Each structure stands twice: as C-alpha cells, then as structure tokens.
Amino acid sequence: MAKLKIFGKANPVVGTKEFYSIKDLFGNSASAQFNEPNFESISGDQVKWSIWVLYGKSWKKATENNKTGLTVPYTFSQKSLTRKGIRMLVEVNGEKAVLDIVTQKASKGKILHVDLLDNNYNKPARPFAYGDWIIARVHCVDMELMPVKVTLWEDDGDKGKKNTTNLKIEQKKGAVKNGQADVAFYLDPSHKWLANAKLAPGDESEGEFHEYYVTAEIFEKVSKRIASKNTNVPNPDYKKEPEAKKQTPAEQKGPSQKETKKIALSDKKVQDYHEQKIAVKNEISKNPVWEKINSFMMVGGEDSIWNKNHKDGECPNCIAAVKAGQLKKIFTKTDLTILETVGAIYTKYMKELGMDTCWNKAHFFAQAVVESGKELTVKSGGESFDYSADDLYLGRWSEKEQKRKIIFSYFATHKDEAYQYGRIKEIRNGKKVIVQYANEEMIAKLAYGPNAAKGVELGNTQPNDGWDLRGRGLVQLTGRSGYEYANNYTKREGADIVQNPDLIVTNVAIAVLSSMAFFKWKGINKIANEKTDTKPISVQVGNDVPLANGKKNHTEKQEVFTNNTAVVFETAICKYGDNQPKTDLKIQQGINWLEGIAIDQKLAHDKSNYKVLYSQDGDRISKQGEDIMDCSELICRYLQKIEWSSKVLSMNTSGLYDYAKNNSKWLEKHDSTDYKPKVGDIFIWKNDAGSNGHTGVVISFDKTKDIVTTIEAIQSLEKPEDMQGAIQLQGVVKLKWKRLSKHLINHPVRTKTYTASSCRFYTPKVHYSKQDKK
C-alpha cells in the first residue's frame, strides 16, 4: 500500500460537520505528492478512525469517537476550542496516518440541534411515557453563557389546518455552558387526561401516542448572564444540523413548525430557534428509569476526565462536583430534585472532610444504597430494637457458628429486664402469637445507656441517650460521641442534631452531611481510598447483618460498589495516589532503556525472541556486558541509567538488599503490604544464606486489578498473569504479576532449600551528584 494520508480540514469550524477520508474526494493538489492506496482492495471496516486529546503531557483516546469507513463525518464542539491538542488517527491494516486538528470559532452563533435524553442523560431506549423525565439538551456554538428559553408544548393542532390549539406545558430557562444547556421536564401523568380530553376537530381520540415537542430559543448577548448547573455526559447521536448560510437563522431553516402554527416568538431579540418533536406513549410509565445504553460523544464534548480545574497530578474526577445525573444511576427511584440536594451537600463538604476522591464517593454512596435503597429513603424510626426476650438474654442463634451470640452484654446479666421489655410469643390454639410486644425505647435506653458497656463505648452520658441518639441516617450514626462530632458540621447548615436528632431522618441534606462526618470520624475516608474490597469499610460502619432480600449487609455493599458506584465514579481510571515522589532522578530515561531491551511475556517461551539472555557472567559493569545479564546486574545498570549512581555498581541481589538496609535514605524500603508501587520502584528479596534471591523494576501498576508490571532478568519456570500456563523465562522480559502474588509481596520466606527475607518494594532516592554512591 502507498503512503497513507488523511484528507479533510485540519482547522474545522466548531459546529460544522466535516468529512475526513483516506481518499482525496475533492481533487486537492496534495494528492499528487502521493500515490493513493488501492481502495478497491480495502473495505470500510478495515479503515479505523479515532480521536486523541492531549491531557497534561500524554495523549488519551476518546474511545466514544471511534469510527470505521473510507470516509467518516466529525463535528467538533465548543469544548474542543479549549483543548491543548487534538489528533485524528486513521489505521489501515497496520499502517497509520495522523492529522493534527486545531478547531476555529464559528463566525455566527447558532443552535445546532436539540437532543431529547432520558433521566439518566442517555439516548432513550424506549418511547417516552407519562411519569418519565425528559432532558432537553440544547447544543450551541459561540453562545457561551447566553440564556436559553426551553418550552415543552402539547400539540393538539388540527393536522389538516394551520391553526392550533397547542398548549404550553412548561417553560424553563438555562444557560449555555461548554456549548450545551440541559433543561429537565417531567411528563406529569395528569397531562395524559388533558391530552385525551382536548381533541382536535374531527379526531375521535389522540391515538397510541400523544404529540409533544420542545422549542429552544436563544437570545442576543446581554450584559448579565447566569450559568445554570450542567451535568456533563457523553452526547448521543446527533441529528443533521441546518446548512450554514448568510441569511438569518429563520431564513436558513425556512418556516418553522412554531411559526406555521402561529406560536409567536416570545422576544424580538431571539438570536436562533430550534424545535424537536417528542412522541409520548398514551400510558403511564411502569418503569420510569431505564438502563444506560451506548451513546456517541461529540468530539470535544465535556467528559469528566478532561476537567481542567485541578492541579498538576491531581485527579480531575476526584475533585469534580457530584452531579444529580450520576446519583440517578445509583438511586434510580429517587427524584432528581432530591438528588440535586444530595450532590450539592456532598460537594460542599467533601474537601473539608477528606472525601474528595473517586473512591470515597463510590464507597459512601454504596453504603447509602444498602442502608436506604434506591429510593434513598432514610428509615424514619432509626435503628430497630424489636428483639425477643430470649434473644436479649440468651443471645441470637448463629447458623455459621452453630451457637447463640450475645447481642447486648447488659441483658445477658439482667434476665428480669430482658423478659420485662423483650418480645414474647406463646403458642395458643396451635399458633404462635405475640403476647408481649418489645418495648424498643426501654431496650435502647438500657442496652446503650451510660451504665452499659456499649453505652460507655458510644460516649452516652444521659439516661435517654440510648434511645434519643440511636442509630440514624445513611450509615446509622449512633451515640453521643458520634452525634456531637457530626453536630460540628450539621450546625453550619442550621441543624443541631444533638438537640433534634430526628433532623437526620427528615432532612436529606443533614442525613448526608452527618454520614459524611461519620466517615471522617471513623477514619473511613482514608481507609476507602484505592480499596476495591469493601469489607474494611463495612466493618467500620456496622455488623454484617441479614437483609430482607436474603443477602447480608457486607455482601450487598460489595456488589453495589463493584457493579454500580465504582462504575459511576470511575474508580478504574482514578488518578488518586498516582503522583510520583518529587525526585531529580531520570526515572523515565531508565524505563525507556528497559523497554528497549525487554520482550513481552507472550514471546518469552521462545529463546530466539530474547534481546538480552539471562546469564551470571563476569562482565557486570561494561557497556559490552549488556548483551547478557542476571537480575541484579539489570538493576545496577538501571540505577545508573536514572543517575542514582554515577557508574554501574557491581552488586548481587544480596548486596543490593544489604545496601538498602544500611542506606534507607538512598533506597527507601516500604514495609507495609498495602503499599502501592510507583513507576521506577524496584523489588528485592534475598536468601538469608547470601546466595539466591531476586529483584526487578516496576514499570506500571494497575490499582484496579492490583497488577504490577515489571521488567526483570530472570531464569525460571513461572506463570505470570494473563498466561494460560507456566512458561520458561530465560532473559530480560516484561511480566505481569498480582501485587500479592508469590512472585512479589507474598514470596515464601521458607522453602525446602532455603530461608529468605520477605519481598518488598524500594524507591530509589537522591541523585548521584548529591550523595556519593560510588
């Protein structure tokens, strides 16, 4: 194939559809410089297009913009004007071509189109019905912060005439931000009756679908502008926009439906206008929320990972505000207005409470789902104390341990009170009936009272504390110590929860804030970061109790986190903890050198594939000795490449281990098994007898899967991650291991042949010029 080239505008105007091709469609003179590929032998699905965006110093693929075909269309949005760099890449059978894109402002502002999304901010997967929310998303160019008036209409017009009996249902205002404005409308079930009752002349019924439509009007620039809140999500497939001409917007589109129906423009200063139909099924929705479907993101469209209001090295998703649209994917049966309050209060206090990370958001709201359900309903009664007298005194039966376990130590030693206040059943006429209901208030006062061990633990000091300050809220805040700690924050929202504890269950903002304070009080905000296992968090919140659905509390929390909240808050791409320690060492220089001499583990079975074979030869320091190496020689050469040492040191693994032990300020050891290795770290273990051992370099770490990628000089039979079976390793190779695998942190310290040190990660510190390492 001849040299591949992209034909199309490198400087497209935002909002204008442009076509890009590997074939010169327009007879450009540039085509004379290259012989075109043989297109007859290429099918469209062999031509793969992608868009890449410069984020910091690295390029990231906007995967939602992948396309295939000999010729493809792209429309760049307003947001693309703020990108540091955009590149278009085309690949055909291994050959690649790149076009750098620099977008240009539109000469005249206009509305591109109006999308109708479901209340998950996604392209609808079924027809709208009454009881649904409709999100009208208005896409504009060159109209930042300008006011948009969006109106929902019910169309009752006579289909054969130009007059109308149309009804304005609701009108809302928004403002354009990042090229788009979102306005939400609720399809009130009462409108179903109105639409059916208000027929056009000659019509017997409204039919299976009622006709609604949304109009969007945008006005000339004004001196004062207020930006509405915006939920940033991928754009769905957009519809064809009007062709750009020099006439006014109305002339561009011809008579609009609104003008034909004699619905007057509401203001003479209207800059542009657009209309979009809605077919609403003549029924009440039985499923007002539906799952997310695949959707298309307009190039340069807002995407949380590209937010720029963050410092270098800081995760933009961590510090991003919690949006109602995100929460709607978690609390699917909760009204958007409530979720706006929840998102606002979380965002307001998340930094102060140390919960401004993707991980804290995911763990916190997973816990909230388990406690309050998808309806986000906080139990009005708080913690239940409906216990039987037998369970209070004897303990509750544990199927797992096959014995009774004490619930409250107080009642285990106060039998009379257990049977005075606990629930009692008797058999009467062959049936068990309750003859004494549990006195929950008295049980709580005694079990959590100041004279009970549990009450002392909770910091309760007053006789009524056990009942008044019982477990409430999203995480069951319990006891005076917890209430007083959270009260330091809730008072700032006008809620004294010590004097009025019921505010935790009657005010959703206070329920969220008090629970956030609980997270900080218990140190959960620190435990949660980079934890895919929810158990360490769950045990801090409460016991693993059975639920009504047959599951147990901790199990359901793990499922909700893994399948829902971790996905919504994108923990898989969270950059929390990725910051490299400040150093003057040339880590990347060393990594590049390692990458150049290593082969992938998939090639390691064949000795002929190796660039550097394994051998414990005598030449450990000269340039000529780089053709074969053992593990410690590779590390010593790497340390010189990053300028940790001025020359290649001649040390075996045992020597490296002892050197690190005696010079911790130069090679910092990380003893904790929770340590997440950084790029450039090394790992070392040694045989206590002085021979044997192993070492290698970390070149990347996937914290979601807890997988470390290393480069090592190794001669061994091993089974790395992603390999079907063990392979014979015999040189410098790139390998993947679970961080807690036997190859790394869980390497055995005792075998049949030797006793070894534990394997740990070490961080090289200090440039050779600042410390003499010889």
Strand order of the largest sheet: 20-27-26-25-24-28-23
Structural class: alpha+beta
Shape: flat
Average pLDDT, to the nearest integer? 79
Q: What portion of residues is helical?
A: 10-25%
As a percent range, the share of strand residues is 15-25%
Instruction: Please tally the β strands and state the result.
Output: 28
Task: Give the termini separation.
Answer: 54 Å
Largest sheet: 7 strands, mixed
Output the number of helix runs: 22
Q: List low-confidence stretches.
A: 26-37, 157-164, 197-206, 221-269, 287-310
Description:
With 774 residues, the chain is α+β, with helices and mostly antiparallel strands. The chain has 22 helices and 28 strands. The strands form 8 sheets. The chain has a 7-stranded mixed sheet with strand order 20-27-26-25-24-28-23. Strands 2, 3, 4, 6 and 7 form a 5-stranded antiparallel sheet that branches. Strands 9-15-14-11-12 form a 5-stranded mixed sheet, covered by helices on one side. The longest helix has 16 residues, at 553-568. The radius of gyration is 33 Å and the shape is flat. 37% of the residues are buried.
Supply database-style keywords.
alpha+beta, seven-stranded mixed sheet, 28 strands, five-stranded antiparallel sheet
Sum this structure up briefly.
The protein has 774 residues and is of the alpha+beta class. It contains 22 helices and 28 strands. The two termini are 54 Å apart.
